[in-house]
């Protein structure tokens, strides 16, 4: 009787392990496509943006007309943003006038944003969105980071919700613009 109970417990344990491993294996499939070529805005005209940068200059998507504009919604307390933004700066520098990066802060104070930007040496335009009006024109749900690549005609070419690895960033920008120009 004791041996049979032990065997049943082993079988139940193995069954549970199989279920857990199956769920863990399915998680990447449930996350969907990370190519950025799918999303609710891809292929549609980009929503508007109108916000001031840290120096008080007003920016809109028209400032990126004729080139790729990378709209990134972020916050200082967003852990992936701390990794992404220095990599985004490298790409902004490499592509120069061919790529406009607009970092739109998610409703934080000018002081905390300025401290963050100074600490990470970010020089591309950082826009303040204290009311989150710009954010909610692009997305009905909260969640950071968010990346939108708008083509020269004003349509969303790529949309990535969530963290974007530096290598994937470079790949998306190269798909849209080709290799960076030589210095």
The helicity comes to 40-55%
Secondary-structure class: alpha/beta
- What would you call the shape? elongated
- Describe the main β-sheet briefly: 5 strands, mixed
Output mean pLDDT.
88
Low-confidence blocks of residues: 23-33
> What oligomeric state do these chains adopt?
single chain
Beta-strand residue fraction: 15-25%
Could you give the distance between the termini? 79 Å
Give me the number of helical elements.
Answer: 5
How many DSSP-defined strands? Answer: 7
Q: What is the N-to-C order of secondary-structure elements (H for helix, E for strand)?
A: HEEEHEHEHEEH
Major sheet strand order: 5-4-3-6-7
From the alpha-carbon coordinates, what is the Rg to the nearest angstrom?
Answer: 21 Å
What does this structure look like?
42% of the residues lie in helices and 19% in strands. Mean pLDDT is 88; it is low at 23-33. Helix 3 (110-120) links the parallel strand 4 and strand 5. It is elongated and about 80 Å long. It is α/β, with parallel strands linked by helices and 183 residues long. It is built from five helices and seven strands.
Task: Detail the topology: elements first, then pairings.
Elements: H1 2-31, E1 50-52, E2 58-60, E3 68-74, H2 79-95, E4 99-105, H3 110-120, E5 126-128, H4 133-138, E6 146-150, E7 156-161, H5 166-177
Parallel strand pairs: 3-4, 4-5
Antiparallel strand pairs: 1-2, 3-6, 6-7
Helix pairs in contact: 2-5
Compact summary:
With 183 residues, this protein is an alpha/beta fold.
Which descriptors would you attach to this protein?
183 residues; alpha/beta; two-stranded antiparallel ribbon; 5 helices; 42% helix; 19% strand
């Amino acid at each position: 009787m004791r041996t049979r109970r032990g065997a049943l417990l082993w079988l139940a344990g193995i069954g549970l392990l199989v279920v857990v491993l199956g769920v863990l294996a399915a998680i990447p499939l449930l996350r969907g496509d990370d190519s950025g070529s799918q999303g609710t805005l891809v292929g549609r005209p980009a929503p508007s943006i109108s916000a001031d940068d840290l120096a008080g200059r007003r920016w809109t998507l028209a400032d990126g007309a004729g080139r790729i504009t990378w709209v990134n919604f972020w916050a200082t307390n967003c852990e992936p943003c701390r990794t992404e933004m220095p990599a985004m700066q490298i790409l902004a520098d490499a592509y120069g006038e061919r790529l406009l990066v607009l970092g739109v802060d998610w409703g934080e104070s000018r002081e905390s944003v300025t401290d963050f930007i100074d600490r990470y040496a970010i020089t591309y335009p950082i826009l303040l969105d204290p009311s989150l009006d710009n954010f909610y024109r692009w997305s009905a749900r909260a969640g950071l980071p968010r990346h939108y690549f708008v083509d020269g005609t004003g349509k969303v070419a790529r949309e990535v919700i969530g963290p974007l690895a530096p290598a994937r960033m470079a790949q998306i920008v190269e798909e849209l613009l080709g290799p960076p120009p030589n210095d």
